[in-house]
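Re: [ENG-882] Designed sequences occasionally contain unexpected residues at chain ends

Forwarding the minimal case from QA. Structure tokens:
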């Protein structure tokens, strides 16, 4: 079974400029999620997926596909066996689940998400 991209994160070196751009050009309604520096544009009932917009931690612009997996622990083994690396250890998002970031053997950054609406308050590692 293919595990599709279910979410996209856009990292911007200038959150305000990017938020204005996406709202003006694509009519996105961006709302804070988790904290005021993390904005989400819901796809709604139409085609597409929700998109997160945040300030890039290192100042580099990038888009990160997020793939929903049934278990971060199980897929981690597969990632490492296939030559990938976990670059951000699993973390919890209250009411949403757990996530982490990996790179493939060529250096492509990908997010992973394990859905769990019963996830406890946010923690690291």
């Amino acid at each position: 079974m293919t595990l599709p991209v279910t979410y996209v994160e856009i990292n911007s070196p200038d959150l305000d400029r990017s938020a204005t751009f996406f709202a003006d050009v694509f009519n996105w309604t961006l709302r804070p999620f988790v904290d005021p520096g993390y904005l989400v544009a819901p796809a709604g009932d139409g085609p597409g997926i929700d998109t997160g917009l945040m300030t890039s931690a290192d100042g580099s612009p990038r888009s990160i596909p997020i793939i929903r997996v049934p278990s971060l622990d199980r897929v981690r083994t597969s990632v490492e066996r296939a030559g990938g690396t976990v670059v951000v250890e699993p973390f919890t998002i209250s009411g949403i689940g757990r996530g982490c970031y990996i790179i493939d053997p060529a250096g492509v950054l990908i997010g992973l998400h394990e859905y769990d609406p019963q996830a406890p308050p946010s923690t690291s590692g």
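QA comment: On inspection the terminal residues look reasonable. The two ends are 28 Å apart (CA to CA). Proposing we downgrade this to a documentation issue.
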